[in-house]
Structures are given as C-alpha cells and as structure tokens.
Design goal:
By secondary structure, the chain is α/β, with parallel strands linked by helices. It has 6 helices and 6 strands.
C-alpha cells in the first residue's frame, strides 16, 4: 500500500451487500484504498443468507477490485477459505461422477451449492489477489 493514500479497513462483510456498497462508496469519497479483512462469504445474519446474497457479493467483489481506482486488497478469512475448499471438493466429486457424495455434502452443508458458484464468479486473476496478510502504513494486517 502506498503511504500517500488513506486505507479504509473493511471488517467481515458476511454477505452483507449493503455494508459492502457503503464501504466502497465511503472509500470512493475519501480516495482511499480498500482493505478487506476477509470473511466476505458465509452469512451470519439470516437477512443476508442464501444463494442470492452470496451470488450478489461474489459478483460485486471482482467488479469492485477492477473498478475502484485507488485499489483493493483482500485478506482471506477462515470463512472464505472454507467456502473455496468446499467448492473445490464439490467440483471434484461432480467430475468423478459421485453424485451421491455431492448430495450428502449438500445435505450436511446447505450453502455448498452456493459456494460452488464462487468458482464461476471469481476468476483466477481475482483469486490470485487474495493474501493471508497485508502491510498497510507500516502495520501488518491479518
């Protein structure tokens, strides 16, 4: 991060698209870079739960990363890592023809089909931007 630009640190979004949009708007007004602390997926509030909310946030993040002039950085939270692992496992099972195992996974974790959509919504170049930590203005943020 450039020491010349302010940084707006955005804590856990948990699929709250309104919160994400408010943070992006504030960073835009202030000319600040955005630093997401992770856990953008996996709703903790029922209002933000479900495939539609996950899909909306999943689509918004790469668009924000590409369009926010000062720049964005993403730290992978434990919920994000888990969601991507589940998506990868589910895809591997589907490719192996293990539909019964996919059904068991989906029954045990109802969000699993939605997590699978992350792989479609998040291109490789976007995923490559995610880190476990960032340094901002001399502080290690993780």
């Amino acid at each position: 991060f450039s020491p010349d630009l302010p940084v707006l640190v955005v804590p856990d979004v948990h699929q709250d698209l309104g919160f994400l949009e408010r943070a992006a708007a504030r960073a835009g007004r202030e000319g600040a870079r955005l630093l997401f602390l992770g856990d953008v997926v996996d709703a903790i509030d029922p209002r933000w739960a479900g495939a539609a909310a996950l899909r909306a946030v999943a689509r918004a993040l790469p668009e924000l990363a590409a369009g926010h002039g000062p720049g964005c950085a993403f730290i992978a939270g434990n919920h994000d890592v888990m969601a991507l692992r589940v998506a990868r496992s589910r895809a591997a099972l589907l490719l192996a023809g293990e539909e019964a195992q996919v059904a068991k996974l989906d029954a045990a974790m109802p969000a699993a089909p939605g997590y699978a959509e992350l792989l479609a919504e998040w291109p490789a170049e976007f995923l490559a931007r995610w880190r476990l930590a960032e340094v901002a203005h001399g502080f290690l943020v993780s």
